[in-house]
Amino acid sequence: MVLPKQLKKTHVRILILILLIIISIAIGNFIFDVLIEKPHIGIIKIEGSISSEAKKDSILELIETTKENKSIKAVVLEINSPGGEAAIIEEIYLSLLELRRKKPIVASIDQLGASGAYYIAIASNYIYAKPSSDIGSIGVISVLPEEEPLDENTITTGTLKGVGTPHKELARQIQMIQESFLRAVIFQREGKLKLSKEELADAKVYVGFDALNLGLIDALGTKEEAIKKAAKLGRVSNYEVIELNEEPMIKITISLSVDQSILNSSTNTVPINYYLYLNPEK
Q1: Among 213, 101, 189, 95, which residue's Cα sits nearest to residue 138?
Q2: Rounded CA gap, 64 and 96, in Å?
Q3: Angle, alpha carbons 226-230-233 (nearest 5°)
Q4: What gap in Å lies between CA 239 and CA 104, rounded to an integer?
Q5: pLDDT, tens digit, for every residue of 26-37?
Q6: What is each CA distance from 21 to 10, 11, 27, 186, in whole angstroms?
Q7: pTM here?
Q8: Dist. CA 175–CA 277, nearest whole Å
Q9: Which residue in 62, 65, 223, 264 has the most C-beta neighbors within 10 A?
């Protein structure tokens, strides 16, 4: 059957219109993907002992850059750390709280999120960990200062010049730091925590499964699940994941707050994973 010329023209017009629509969609997708930047989920890695000014400055710079970058809609903290120096940990914690006011944060604890590293984790909106992760150790450790020996070539003023802080005063300061740590955990985990303040103060380390049951974390899961949660909290679906600290982590020469050999021992009775507080005079 031969179609009338008018009908043929109509079919041609329809086909041309369909092709134009397809081309427009393709061009639109190209412009969106190439010219319009996709939203990002930023990953900040926190690894090893956090006990140097250089390490602190590096982490704080990442947090500040993330806060100002409008393309980053949510953040995942990838944590594998035994903690660090008290003042440094507190500064990072407070900086993360400022970031959380602008963008959601999800913590993803790998093998270790103890002591000061857990302090950092509670600054997030949601905490993931693995079933075997070591979590907790909410406490403080410090080294008492030793009096410097005097000789004929040394002159000091003040009875405490060689010591800096009396032992009793240092003990009081440590207790205040621990109290601040405990209050932060209780406040940030309000409505979820199933441990009393006294139980938290024991500085016990819990595996991920127990930490979940006790309300120290929100869910068991991988980094990928943490990314999905961050995207959900950030209300984005078509996003890209970016690693914000690509450079190798700074090598730390001072002692970690967790002795791995003690951590792995099944018979030890030594308190482990304490929140490391280094005497500034040391």
Answers
A1: 189
A2: 9
A3: 140
A4: 15
A5: 665 555 554 556
A6: 17, 15, 10, 57
A7: 0.70
A8: 11
A9: 62
- Strand pairing report for 40-47 and 134-136: unpaired
Rounded Cα distance, 201 and 138, in Å: 6
- Per-range mean pLDDT, top range of 145-149, 202-206, 245-249: 202-206
Cβ atoms of 209 and 187 within 8 Å: the answer is no
Residue type, 218: D
Instruction: List the structure tokens of 180.
Output: 């601040």
CB 278 within 8 A of CB 143: yes
Backbone φ, ψ for residue 84 (5° rounding): 180, -160
pLDDT over 70, % of the chain:
65
Residue 170 has a pLDDT of 57
Rg over alpha carbons for the chain, rounded to the nearest Å, is: 27
State the DSSP code for 77: E
Alpha-helical (H) ranges within the chain are 5-30, 53-68, 86-100, 116-121, 167-188, 197-201, 208-213, 223-234, 260-263
pLDDT, residue 251, reads: 33
| pLDDT, tens digit (0-9, with 9 covering 90-100), for 90-123 | 999 999 999 999 999 999 999 999 999 999 999 9
Residue corresponding to tokens 């791995």 = 260
Asked whether the beta carbons of 123 and 101 are under 8 A apart, the reply is: no
Cα→Cα distances 71→38, 59, 145, Å: 7, 19, 48
Six token digits for residue 163: 């010591």
pLDDT at 192 over 70: yes
- What secondary structure letter does DSSP report for 10? H
What is the chain's mean pLDDT, rounded? 77
